[in-house]
Amino acid sequence: MPAPPPVIDIETSPDRKSAILAAALAVFSEKGIEAATIEDVRQRSQASVGSIYHHFGTKEGIAAALFAHGIDDYWARLIASAAGKASAERTIHGLIAAHIGWIAEKPDLARFLFSRRQAVGQAYDEAIRQRTAAHFKTLFELLKPWFKQGVLRRLPAGLYAPLLMGPAQEYSRQWLGGRIDIEPRVAIRELSQAAWRSLAVDPDRRD
Amino acid sequence: MPAPPPVIDIETSPDRKSAILAAALAVFSEKGIEAATIEDVRQRSQASVGSIYHHFGTKEGIAAALFAHGIDDYWARLIASAAGKASAERTIHGLIAAHIGWIAEKPDLARFLFSRRQAVGQAYDEAIRQRTAAHFKTLFELLKPWFKQGVLRRLPAGLYAPLLMGPAQEYSRQWLGGRIDIEPRVAIRELSQAAWRSLAVDPDRRD
DNA sequence: AATATTCTAGAATATTATTCTAGTCAAGCA
DNA sequence: TGCTTGACTAGAATAATATTCTAGAATATT
User: Fold this and answer.
1) Looking at beta carbons, which residues of chain B come within 8 Å of A60?
2) Residue B186 sits in which domain range?
3) Which nucleotide's C1' is closest to A57 (Cα)?
4) CA of A131: how far to CAs of A15, A112, A116, A126, A127, in Å?
5) What is the pLDDT of residues B127-153, one digit of tens each?
6) Interface of B with A in 34-53 (CB under 8 A)
7) CATH number of the structural domain spanning residue B128
8) A-B contacts at Cβ under 8 angstroms
9) Would you say residue A164 has pLDDT above 90?
10) A182 in contact with chain B, both atoms CB, cutoff 8 A
11) Domains identified in chain A, total number
12) Is pLDDT larger for residue B4 or for residue B197?
């Protein structure tokens, strides 16, 4: 399989397109997508309206591009941390740690990614779905061995994602919204253990 | 504690305010909040611009009101189904069944509630937070006995919500987005059991 | 009934997204 | 070097749409 192209960092990359994306993220974070105006983005990015529209077509297009960027960045991290672990338990821990770690590191992008999905509009839904599905398939392959050999429970396939990442996802949303103050480190530990209990066959007799 | 006022049904209630909310929900669902125009809402609700602005102030105000309505409707259902159960296991099952059941019953409102939170804008954040916090506190009281008597694990308080509802929440999002086809009934069963495994003290020796 | 208050209407206005025209700039090439 | 092409940028002009305003109808209150 070809190595996925590295995800560029919109904060540091010097080209105008990245500058616009970074500015948009900042503005969207401050005022919300709807309230943010193109003029806001223009000022913050030092670009012109023409330039913005040349690159992204519409305001929604900016959001969609930002979204795609976020997805790729997030999943690259997730998959890197899940690959090559020696046990199912470590794989699960790695995933949850990566998820929560990423969110703590890039809270603005995370907030955008996880709370504004629909704001991007259904025109881009299919593209986003495909991107996510591809990433998730890669991840699923990493877990396959473990439930083939009876370490992880067999469940309807669609339920793995909710069970594995649901609690971390929910924790993250609340943490990002400032509605919970439990430290990421603690959450990683507790949520990993809980995920293990809910997914493992017979977790108490594992050693 | 005073009984909470019953949540009115915006679909059937005949007053103009409800009509506007119902129309807004429909339009928002079809095109997304941003793309939906006041004119769309006006046409579908048979109201006038003036009337809409009289009741809600801004377009965002409509979204906020819809959001508040959804929260109340959702939580009323959740709490009703968790109250008075004879065991912790049944309480948990009740909660998850209520969550998933509500979503399956009112998918448009659910989609709005769970996917557009940030679209409502931080001006209303505090109000929403308080509403949710109050509801959640009520729920938490219902669970207290069970972990006081050692049936449920003691964890950092903020992690109960993610563990309890996170997977159901994540399942719901995907189901609402058409990205998963597992039946609600099946999901309720599996996710209840999994939640029990992750929250109970020693679930395997419970009987 | 008289008055006040809430609600409705739709035209007028202001804001903001988007389009358009005219360039600039860098890369390739004769 | 000078020419050509395509990607990019600029900002004024336009169009779409949110919001305000004034006036009047309906409803409640005394």
Assistant:
1) 34
2) 70-205
3) C18
4) 24, 17, 17, 9, 6
5) 788 888 888 888 888 888 888 888 999
6) 34-35
7) 1.10.357.10
8) 140
9) yes
10) yes
11) 1
12) B197
